[in-house]
Each structure stands twice: as C-alpha cells, then as structure tokens.
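User: Show me a protein chain along with its predicted structure.
Assistant: Here is one chain, sequence first, then structure tokens.
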Amino acid sequence: MTAPSHAAPSHSATSIPDPFDPAAEFDRQVRTLVERGYPEASGLGDKKFAALLAPLRDTAVTMKDAAHAPDAGRVGFVLVVTREVLPVQETMPRTTLDGGRLPGFVDRSYEPGALERFVATKETELPDLKAYLLVGAERGEEFCGAVPSDAMATVTERGRTLLTIEEGIALITHFPQVLVKNKCFSLGGSRSGDRRVPAVWISQKAPKLGWCWQGNPHTWLGMASASGRRAAPPRS
C-alpha cells in the first residue's frame, strides 16, 4: 500500500473557523478526507463517499456550543470513518504531524493479524458501523505519567468514553496539532483481550500507532476520551 502523495493538506484545509461554526467545520473535515484520498481508497468513489457522510451534517450543525480548542487538545466533534470503510492499515498512513509531510505508520510490534483483533470494547458503543461523529474529544494529557489501567478507570468514572483506534486516527487526521511532543495519548476503547492498550505517539517525525502495557505509565502518554458519539438523525 502506497500513501497518497497529497498526505499533507493545504493550509486552508487545516485552518479552523473562528468563531466555531459547526457547519463549516463539518465541511472542512469532509474535504480533509477527500484530500487524503478516502473516496478512492475505500472503493466508494466520490459520490458514494459523499452520500455516506452527508446525513451527519445535520447532526453536526446542532453543536454550536461545543467546546472547541484544538491547540489545547479539545475539539467539538470529529468525523470518524471506521475500518468497515477503510482499514487501519490504510488510514494511518494518511495522517501527518502538524506542518509535516511524513506519513503516519503502524508499529511493527503489531504482529500479523493483531490489528484485526483490536476492536471496540463492549463498553464502547458505536452508533454506526461505518461513519459517525465523536463528540467532545480530549487528548487527555492530564493522564500523562498515570498507569493506563487507572486512567481508563477514571475516565469511565467520569461518564466519559475511551477512544477507539479509528477515533484516534480520525482525531489526528482532522486535527494534527493535537498530537505533540509529551502530549501523546492512549486509545483504550479498542482492546484485543490482553494487557495491551493502543496508543498514538510521535516517532521518526511522523505519527505512529503502537501499544503499551496497561500497567506501564509513560510521562509522555495520556489517555484520550470523549463525551459521546452521535450518528446521523433517522430518516423520516
């Protein structure tokens, strides 16, 4: 698989509307996915890919009061396209660091077939198997240095939800400025039944999807979470 030559979007694609305009933000995120080659790579083509995402716009426009400060690691909503549409091995290379051009990659510590076993936990209720909005996402740097299993328990106690691998990739795809040195994050919403917790951090000047043991703290690795997930409104 070859990463798209247009891995880094233009400045206009990464600029964030100010004040926060959820309709404009949704449209920006759709453009980002198109620029990253999602329609072609998924096999859907432009029209079918647009039709998949279009119903979510009505959900997005209701989020005018969402807390949105990407530079501080908090975003109002994130447009998530799951592995049912495009596998992780295809989406991760379509990420970059903020201002970077090197494509993200999956760490070799994932043995063959491992990524397929890292799926959303039972507690992580996905509203749609293909595309939805992740709401109130935070990279969770307050948990840097905490034991991952303790951080996950705290997130759950607060009534928040842990991010899946696809959601973490979506977050840094749409908001590359969220992934910065010493403020990287784990993705406890995807597990494989063992002690490994997926995480994204910076390696070789690019985003890397790896994993860490649930009992091993890292000073540079927090725990990402969100307030919830929302699907498109039901069709009348």
